[in-house]
Amino acid sequence: MEKCALVTGSRHRVGAAIARHLADAGWRVFAHVRRGEDDVPEGCERVVADLEAPDCAARLFDQIGDVQVGLLVNNASLFEPDDLGTPDVDAFDRQMRVNARAPMLLTSAFAARHVGGGDALIVNISDAKLAAPNPDYLSYTLSKGALSTLTETSARALAHEGIRVNAVAPAVMLPSGPMSNEDFAEVHDFNPLRRGVGVDDLLAALDSLIANPVLTGQTLLLDAGQRFMALDRDVAFLKDEE
Fold it and tell me: Which family does the UniProt entry place this protein in (predicted)?
């Protein structure tokens, strides 16, 4: 039986790596992008939707058609700076729509299309930041907290249908936010294991979730022990604090 997956946020960075990895492993991959002119990894099929729109899930699955999707990876994410001193209401709303509401809508649509009897899997890409939260990127952190709650509640709701729901929560894997490549290199391995978390680590975690049919409602935390350090600031700002 053909293995089919939908990966959101597949234009570049981690999403493109996930889509490419699944395609190389023999999956038929529907790679979501926001605009029709956006590229997707070779071997993947482009599907287009604005995840801020309330009909985003319907739009994506309409493009997929009658194909039975057995794997949904909610990877797309907005990452914008704010904190309690400078809250940004519009940024909060954008990040909640993309990082939490869209995965909820896609989870609902995925479940509605699922044909019982076969294993199906949803993987939400969360953030290790939740394990030891700090005040930076407040709206983003709150949106990922909502995604974490969605993982647990939907796993409970969908288990009887044979749908597993899990999450992978990596620490910073690529330069992000205000980080330069030099700053990233300096702080990437700032953790007890002295080993930076890489995209390959996330792909290995995804493979393990696919392979193990009894895992549901779990979050695989990929942080090399960084949560033990209880940082006062986001890792992106560590160099500024020196």
Answer: Belongs to the short-chain dehydrogenases/reductases (SDR) family.
